[in-house]
Structures are given as structure tokens and as C-alpha cells.
Amino acid sequence: MASHTVDQMDELGQPISGIIGSSPAMEEVYRITRRVASSNASVLLLGETGTGKELIASAIHRLSNRASGPFVRVNCGALSESLLESELFGHVHGAFTGAIKNRTGRFEAAHTGTIFLDEINSTSLMLQVKLLRVLQEREFERVGDTHTIQVDVRVIAASNRNLSEMVEQEKFREDLYWRLNVVPIELPPLHDRREDIPQLVEHFLSYYNEVNDRYVVHIQSEAMQVMQDYHWPGNVRELQNYVERAVVMASGDELTLDLLPPAVVGGARPRSRIRGADIESLTYEVVQHGLSSSGPAEDNLHTRIVNRVERELIAQVMHACSNVQTKAAAKLGINRNTLHKKLKEYDLGTPEK
Known about the structure:
The protein is of the alpha/beta class.
């Protein structure tokens, strides 16, 4: 197997047209994408919703020797099982109620090109059997037909769930998983590549200025800081939506803090507000009862420290969420009943507390 030189590695890690980001995490995505593009191997794109899996799938197709062929997208999570089967494989006249004429499926339409199966985790076990056959034999039948159709198609699949865990839970076929997972590409969430946020914001500003005939060309430093501190559960797609909103609502030429939604302004990473005196007190306890001791005193100290930090975190998140318990519970990753118990336990029942 030929080895890659340092220069070749650097070239592989160069940004890909249409995809924004130059962080180390994205450079690794570019390297794998460029390497796998020239092959016919199946690719499995993994990552949270909104991380850009479709953009990478499209890039793999553009960089491949199938670029002149079709690139066909299918959202497996948007259709019921019966409709999805017909969508993928087509059907013949009379195959079911409403099948008034023959229909070409997406696999057939993708012949000589690439098919992108988004949210593959949404498919049923029954449909997974048919998908496995296409990957193995490159053939299928339309719904209601006995004629076998041969296809030459590359499969790229994407999932926002952990497929290996679904295999263990017997919700996803292991043989199909290994057929799809020839080359996995993990797309990082936005909070793991915060250094790309300024570049993304500028890109979306430019795009939505042109689309909406606006001129928002400056970014307030406080607004940028808040955007870089926010945890972005919706990833790049959420950032894109909020920049579009800011461009539409701006009265001047600057993206300012007041143009961002409360979820972003109040949802930035909380900075510790534990007072210096509190830290000194905890440090004294560590010195007195720390590593040299064991047993009840050590356990009690650990509990006190954990409780102090937990109380502070809950107080700050509640403040950031304007004391709306449902929203605060979601940000903390716990259910509302648990949060209610914690508020009572730490005597945080009123806003002023």
C-alpha cells in the first residue's frame, strides 16, 4: 500500500469547496473525505443533526469518478416503511392502492452515480434486508414486480444515532451495519470546533445579505463572544438560522447582541461565580481532610464539594433560563421532576435565591 507524504497529507486536509471550517477536527474530516472519494467503498456518516452530513456526502460524490452521474438524496426518516420501500425501489402499476402507473425508484435513478441514505437508523428491520441485498448483489425488484433490476450505484448512509448500540439492541441488522460501515466519517458537533464559528457567521452573513438585499457587514464583539460561548445543540443549522434572523431584523449594518435570541444570549457556557472565599474554604478542607485521610471524612468532603458545584451550576442555569424549569432541565440534561427535587434540596425555590 502506498504511503502518503507529509505534503500529500497536508493537501488532503485542505478545505473542500462548499464546506466552511478550518479547525483541526474539520481538517481530519477533509482528509478522510478526499481519500475515500476516489474509491467505490460505502461510507457511513455519523454525527448530530445539523453537522453537515449531506454536504460531506455531496462532496464525496463531486470528488469521485462518479461525479458525472446522478447524486440522489433520500431522507429515510421522512417516510413510512411502505412509502419508503416504494421510494427506494419503485413500484409497478397496481402494486398497491394508488399505484396508478409504474414508478422508477431512487436506486434505479442513481444508476452510475451515488445514493445518499440520510437517517438510515429510521429504517425497519424488514427494509434493512432489502437494503442489504442491494449492497451485496447490486440488484432488486420494484414493489409488485418479479423482474430483477441491476444497478451500479455507490451508497453513502448517514445516522444521527449510534448504530453499533442499535445493533446491540437488535434494532439494526449487524450484517447491514458492517456493509455500510466500510469507511466511517465522524462529523464533529459545532461546540467541538468553536474556532470555526467566526468564519461560519461571516459566510452566512454574506449569503443572507445577498438573498435579502441587506448590508449587515459588521459583527459586535459581544455578539461574537456569545455565539462562541453558546453550546449549539442544533449545530451549524441552528447557527445559520439565527444569522438569517439577525440579518432580516437588523436596522443597521451590524449584527448586535440584541439581534440574537434569548436562548443564545442566556445559554452561553456559564462562568463560575463561586467566590474566592468559598474556594479558600474548600481548599482548607482539602488540606485538612484531603489525600492523607480516608473514610467518612473524605467521603463527606467529596459530597460537600460536589453539592457546592452542583448548586452553583443549577442556580446559574436557572438564571440564564429566566427560572423556567422546563428549559433549565433540558439544558442540564435532566428531567423536570429531578430539577424540582434539586431546587428544593438546595433551597433554590425562588428567583432571588
